[in-house]
TrEMBL record:
GO molecular function, one term: oxidoreductase activity
Keywords: Iron, Metal-binding, Oxidoreductase
Chain coiled-coil ranges: none
Highest taxon of the lineage: Eukaryota
Species of provenance: Panicum virgatum (Blackwell switchgrass)
Family per record: Belongs to the iron/ascorbate-dependent oxidoreductase family.
PROSITE patterns: FE2OG_OXY
InterPro entries noted in UniProt: DIOX_N (IPR026992), IPNS-like_FE2OG_OXY (IPR044861), IPNS-like_sf (IPR027443), Oxoglu/Fe-dep_dioxygenase_dom (IPR005123), Plant_2OG-oxidoreductases (IPR050295)
Protein name in UniProt: Fe2OG dioxygenase domain-containing protein
Amino acid sequence: MHDMESLPVPSVQAMVAATGGAHVPPRYLRPEVAADAVASEGEAAIPIIDFERLLLEEEAAAAAAASCRVESARLHAACQEWGFFQLINHGVPDDVIQGMKANIEAFFGLPAETKQQFAQERGQLEGYGQLFVVSEDQKLDWADILYLNTQPPEHRNTRFWPDKPDTLRSTLDAYSAAVKTVADRLLAIMSSNLGLPPEVVASRCSGGGMQSVRINYYPPCAEADKVVGFSPHSDADLLTLVLQVNQVQGLQVKRQDGTWVPVRPLDGAFVVNVGDILQIFTNGRYRSIEHRAVINAESARLSVAAFHSPNIHATIGPLLTVTDGGPPELHEALLLCQAGGQELLATDEARS
């Protein structure tokens, strides 16, 4: 992964602090954004899925099992029709969620020179900065990020894990483990919904699979309609779980008609989306959807995305072929394999 480094660029947060954000440098100007159609309030919304109901099947009560089947069907439909949903009652302890939010806000509140202690180094994706800046004339996103490998623990490079604030490392450790448990259980339920054994996806993640996090800081911009916080993209992983850190919205999902639908995160919920590998695994039944982040004119937005991927030696190909009226069959067409494919994946996943 020696060729993955980005060219260094200024911190947008520091630039806004110095200038008040009134002037947008040309490299950030994206005039095409203003022309895009955006759905109005109440026009459309991504589905809401109740994780507690999905887990009720383990109980004996017939009513609970029926409620679980209804929720599983809603999850199945959300993955096919939207590729996105909000997950409520996910069971990650509130103190872990609130601790994560507080530590992220505190990190981005540190002096610029302190944050620079954790800056990306040549040949590294991990660290504080910006990803995939490959030319001096490339258009830039209006954001600063901290990107880290989090699971399994032996994949971590603690050189880039901030020790300021002093609770960030322990909080991220607890948060990453709890979120991975949720993702693993969701993937098992999705496998069952597709008519496959629940462990099929997990078997491609033998050894537990991989998780990385991208912590995003989107500064305010006086000309918010002329910049983009995160360029349109789909995620390269299996499943992404996003935590909205503060109350400022910005995530938008692209519908088939080209309209962008704003996501209004519920307090305490995760925004979950299907990634490219899950679309491949499901042979296109579940959809990896283009999305982006837009900027607020007055307030910064913070979020943390946790990406979940197969392990580095996994074979990536459809697990599913649908026969005429019959049950789905396992299918092993090889699309991405082992180190080469995973290196491309790692590059693209950090982008997602």
